[in-house]
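Lab meeting, action items carried over

1. Structure of the two-component assembly. Owner: GW. Status: complete.
Input record:
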Amino acid sequence: MIASQDIMKRLKSLGNRSRFNQNNARIIASGNPDDNLGALLQEINETILARVLEFRTDTGAKLCLDVIGRRVLHISELQIPSGDEAANPVIGTLLSESEHLELFLQTVSRFTKDANELSVIASTPKQEFDTSAVGLQAGRLIKSIPESGNTEEPVIETESAAIQFLTSTSDITDWLILKGEDAGVNSGDSTNVAALEKVAESNIDKFESYLDQFTTNPNEPAAAIVGTLSGNRESILCFRIGEQLGLAVINGDAIPLIINKWRDLHN
Amino acid sequence: MSRKAEKMDISGHLDAINKAFDSVRIAAFADLTVQLVLADSTKSNIGQEILDDLCIQAANAFECPALHTDNSLIDPPVEAIVMTDKGILLTLRSTEFSPNALIFECDYDINLKDILTMARDTLKKTGAE
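Predicted assembly:
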């Protein structure tokens, strides 16, 4: 459970205005090199949609990470002025917790070492990520940081099952969470998301009742896909996972994959 | 074709689908407007109440609130799939206006592509439109 002081600390930090350096990069840590690693992992932890995070330090180092759903999939680039990273086995590799957790933390620690300023630029990836890959979860990385005497511990958030499900395949093209801790979070074409918002307006109870009729008990997990179940045509997905209720537009051809993802989520 | 002859013909198709897919627990043909199962094929003995309930759920699956708006994002639905801890409920009708539908209760490992192909073929062959 997250302590109330952690929540207050996080809310306070969210209220702070972001600072940018001369390269228009957002400064995420400055003044204390001990804060750098935690700040970098916190950025990963707050990245839900597919993004390339380009970190730079005032010592001239550069690190690019492919991140989605609070998970790092790859280190796509690493430059450290004082070291030769060409042979580093984690660069360009699809990361996994069993093989790369420790090596990833060592690599990132070398990158942030001695820097007085750490900044980040987030951009949309040029190529789609393989979203079925698990990668390294930020929460797990944060828990694995060696003790460093930091007093500012990052808040550990775990990705909600609903977000995990929605970001698990790019065939869930447009989506919106209607209810729950991530209410309002959305992704996809803005016109479609706006249409989903309109559909959802004042209708949340109807969606709850709609799903309840299929479950043994109210509020149990359920999902309905309505439309055409194969081919290029789009269908509507309405789902409930825990407290979260959502709507999505999906590609008909992807429905077998979505069924598998749903089953995996509940097994 | 008389209702009785149609039913017999469909029963054979339902048995064939039930036999072809281990993951299908119940295969049924129903009139969704009156919510009545007209024929069924099951792997174990089940009561009429279960079939009635299945038929009501299949009919209601098409009543997703997202479809009853002026700005619906999709074409009128002809197929629906519901996923719960009980498994998968798959319903197909040949057009969005057709009262007749094929309904399947399946396990999660169902081969969706193959069963959809066979079910659509059944709807065509039996003229259940």
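2. GW to write a short summary for the group page. Key points so far: The radius of gyration of chain A is 20 Å. Chain A has eight helices and twelve strands.
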